[in-house]
Amino acid sequence: MLPKTRNLLIRLCGLVFTVAALLLAGTHAADAHDVLESATPAKNSSVASAPSSVELVFNEPVDDGFNEITVLGPDRTSHWEAGATTVRAETVSVPLRPLGPAGIYTVGYHIVSEDGHPVSGSYTFTLTMPGEGTPAPQVQAAAAAPSTTDSAVPVWVWIAGALVLLAAGVVVARRIAR
After folding, report:
1. What is the average pLDDT score of the chain?
2. Which of 26, 62, 65, 155 could serve as a FRET partner for 149 with CA atoms 20 to 30 Å apart?
3. Domain CopC: where (predicted)?
4. Are the beta carbons of 54 and 47 closer than 8 angstroms?
């Protein structure tokens, strides 16, 4: 191999690796999903009067993708949501119907992190004094959360693209070296 060709090959490989490293260094960590920081009513709390809504606060902004909060009554089947789930930065909330029987209510949530990954969980709170409310009709409970799609490009697509470019650079460099 000629010295000029060899130097060109070394420079080309160095350029490809430098570009790939810069592309990968600019990506966000894929494991930094949103974490529930606080809730109203609070986790494992006891409340004497029914709250008018459930409000969840996460450590990072929540994406406008599919987000849902459900509130199940003590029978674990009746829904108590009174409208659609709304998102304001790190806060996700849903209005509630007046609660009914005393007992343990389960708050379930499914949100989309800003990085595009779904996060879900649940917790309970106890209503100590019965209210006079009735649960949502079965059809209304199923339609409580709007179905939207997430249009953001996940980080893994950018990483895969960088790896494909890196592989293409290696193939071109090897052909030039021949």
Report:
1. 83
2. 26
3. 33-127
4. no
Least confident of 52-56, 137-141, 166-170: 137-141
151 has pLDDT over 60: no
Question: Which residues, in sequence order, are CB contacts of 16 under 8 Å at separation 6+?
Answer: 165, 166, 169, 170, 173
Q: Given CA atoms 70, 94, 54, 102 in this order, what sign does their dihedral have?
A: negative
Retrieve residue 64's tokens. Answer: 């406008």
117 pLDDT exceeds 70?
yes
DSSP 61: P
Q: Which residues contact 145 (CB under 8 A, 6 or more apart)?
A: 66, 67, 68, 69, 70, 84, 85
Tell me if 42 sits within 8 A of 126, measured CB to CB.
no
3-state percent helix, strand, coil for the chain, nearest multiple of 5:
30, 30, 45
> Which of 27-41, 105-119, 138-152 is the least confident region?
138-152
pLDDT of residue 24: 65
Count, residues in the chain = 178
* CA separation for the pair 56, 27 (Å, rounded): 28
Q: What is the DSSP letter of 143?
A: T
Q: What ranges in 26-149 are assigned the alpha helix state H?
A: 138-142
Q: Which residues lie below 8 Å from residue 15, measured CB to CB, with a gap of 6+?
A: 169
HSE, side-chain direction, 13 A CA sphere, residue 30: 9
